[in-house]
């Protein structure tokens, strides 16, 4: 099936074609026609499936089919609610990209930046508003935003909204919307809470689910490296250097841990940036831009900060620390293997994380392959599968003064040759 067969306008097809897309993804095939029919929708799609275009394209077409009368002031006709600033910025970018040939105006509002410029844009008139819950309610309270004429409401990453404690804000926002509207709810997973929320918001929705419940992307190769806790950073630097990785997203649990790991990687001679909630919006934007452009090789991030990151062809994700919530593992590794591309996800697992690993494998309903790296063997067992003979890794491509401080004997064991974990 082609995009032309989905009933999209010539202007949208032109914009899609300029992005190099020829065929819709499964979620787009199912979602776009149903949304164009004006139906409410409950969509379950894991990250990287093309879901953002799945709702932005039909949303743009519906609004363009019934434009404002000439000379009339613009008002918010579509509201897209996202859990994080980064996701809001990226959804806004998608709306702008696909709507470039349409006379519609979009804007994004989120925290961490000044209210003034946002107020100015709202006063000039906006058709499509992408927002995070807290900043949107700030504007409502200051009477700089009117949601009484919203025609289409999109709740994106609904599962993360609940995880982050935004459910009360979401309900407050829904009460501000007109009762007659089209509602679209997108979620990577379908928990009982999501089902309850959807029943309260949606009216006879079309249901789309293109991934198994809580399933990891099939295009992502997953491996576990058992490792002593105090040698995780050393192994990470080794993998990045030996594999000459140019782009790897590394997940940690805490903001303090992210800052510490970022400094340690820099001392190892690896270009790194850090992304977490305590960083200013300017710093977060710069870190992400540097990572996307190749200015830094490693982006160290917490779960909340990294939610919704859309990075084309990201080859590697590393769980430096396993998440406490098993579903977060699926979200993390979904940063790679997007839109049909292949990717690799490594987890550096210490003895204290055995329970988290077991919970993740129960969720996935399978065991993740174990790999040992010569010179980094653990003293505990995870039913380890040894690396194949001759699969030793080359020495890291790091400045001599910044090589990880592995014992001499272990470095000699690592030897030269190719890494069994190089494609991990």
Proportion of residues in helical segments: 25-40%
How does the helix and strand content classify structurally?
A: alpha/beta
What sort of overall outline do the alpha carbons produce when their principal axes are compared?
globular
Q: What characterizes the major β-sheet?
A: 7 strands, parallel
Describe the structure.
The protein is of the alpha/beta class and 424 residues long. It has two domains: 3-209, P-loop containing nucleotide triphosphate hydrolases (Rossmann fold); 220-414, 3-Layer(aba) Sandwich (Rossmann fold), CATH 3.40.50. Helix content is 38%, strand content 14%. The strands form two sheets. A seven-stranded parallel beta sheet has the order 3-4-2-5-6-1-7, with helices on both faces. Helix 3 (51-65) crosses helix 4 (85-98) and helix 6 packs across helix 8. The longest helix has 15 residues, at 51-65. The radius of gyration is 23 Å and the shape is globular.
What would a concise description of this structure say?
By secondary structure, this protein is of the alpha/beta class. It has helices spanning 10-18, 26-36, 51-65, 85-98, 115-124, 133-141, 158-163, 167-175, 192-201, 232-242, 255-267, 281-293, 303-306, 326-333, 354-364, 408-414, and strands at residues 41-44, 78-81, 106-109, 128-131, 152-155, 182-187, 206-209, 220-226, 248-251, 272-275, 298-301, 316-319, 343-349. The protein has two domains: 3-209, 3-Layer(aba) Sandwich (Rossmann fold); 220-414, Rossmann fold (3-Layer(aba) Sandwich).
Ordered list of secondary-structure elements with their pairings:
Blueprint: H1 10-18, H2 26-36, E1 41-44, H3 51-65, E2 78-81, H4 85-98, E3 106-109, H5 115-124, E4 128-131, H6 133-141, E5 152-155, H7 158-163, H8 167-175, E6 182-187, H9 192-201, E7 206-209, E8 220-226, H10 232-242, E9 248-251, H11 255-267, E10 272-275, H12 281-293, E11 298-301, H13 303-306, E12 316-319, H14 326-333, E13 343-349, H15 354-364, H16 408-414
Parallel strand pairs: 1-6, 1-7, 2-4, 2-5, 3-4, 5-6, 8-13, 9-11, 9-12, 10-11, 12-13
Helix pairs in contact: 2-3, 3-4, 6-8
């Amino acid at each position: 099936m082609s995009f032309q067969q989905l009933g999209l306008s010539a202007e949208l097809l032109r914009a899609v074609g300029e992005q190099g897309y020829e065929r819709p993804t499964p979620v787009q095939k199912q979602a776009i026609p149903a949304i164009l029919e004006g139906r409410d929708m409950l969509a379950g799609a894991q990250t990287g499936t093309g879901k953002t275009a799945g709702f932005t394209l039909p949303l743009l077409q519906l609004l363009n089919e019934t434009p404002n009368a000439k000379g009339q002031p613009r008002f918010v006709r579509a509201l897209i609610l996202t859990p994080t600033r980064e996701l809001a910025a990226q959804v806004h970018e998608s709306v702008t990209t696909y709507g470039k040939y349409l006379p519609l105006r979009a804007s994004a509002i989120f925290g961490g930046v000044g209210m003034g410029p946002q107020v100015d844009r709202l006063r000039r008139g906006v058709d499509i508003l992408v927002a995070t819950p807290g900043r949107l309610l700030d504007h409502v309270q200051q009477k700089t935003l009117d949601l009484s004429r919203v025609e289409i409401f999109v709740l994106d990453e609904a599962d993360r909204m609940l995880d982050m404690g935004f459910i009360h804000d979401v309900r407050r926002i829904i009460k501000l919307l007109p009762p007659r509207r089209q509602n679209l709810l997108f979620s990577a997973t379908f928990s009982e809470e999501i089902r309850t929320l959807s029943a309260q918001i949606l009216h006879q929705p079309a249901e789309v689910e293109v991934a198994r419940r809580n399933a990891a992307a099939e295009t992502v190769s997953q491996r576990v490296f058992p490792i002593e806790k105090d040698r995780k950073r050393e192994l990470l630097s080794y993998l990045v250097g030996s594999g000459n990785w140019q782009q790897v997203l590394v997940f940690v649990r805490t903001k303090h841990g992210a800052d510490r790991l970022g400094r340690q990687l820099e001392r190892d001679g690896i270009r790194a940036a850090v992304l977490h909630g305590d960083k200013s919006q300017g710093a977060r934007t710069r870190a992400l831009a540097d990572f996307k452009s190749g200015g830094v090789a490693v982006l160290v991030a917490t779960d909340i900060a990294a939610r919704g990151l859309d990075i084309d062809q990201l080859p590697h994700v590393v769980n430096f620390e396993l998440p406490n919530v098993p579903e977060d593992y699926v979200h993390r590794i979904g940063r790679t293997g997007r839109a049909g591309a292949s990717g690799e996800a490594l987890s550096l697992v210490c003895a204290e994380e055995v329970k988290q690993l077991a919970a993740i494998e129960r969720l996935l309903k399978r065991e993740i392959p174990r790999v040992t790296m010569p010179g980094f063997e653990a003293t505990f067992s995870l039913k380890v599968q040894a690396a194949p003979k001759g699969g030793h890794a080359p020495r890291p491509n790091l400045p001599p003064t910044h090589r990880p401080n592995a014992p001499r004997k272990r470095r000699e064991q690592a030897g030269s040759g190719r890494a069994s974990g190089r494609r991990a």
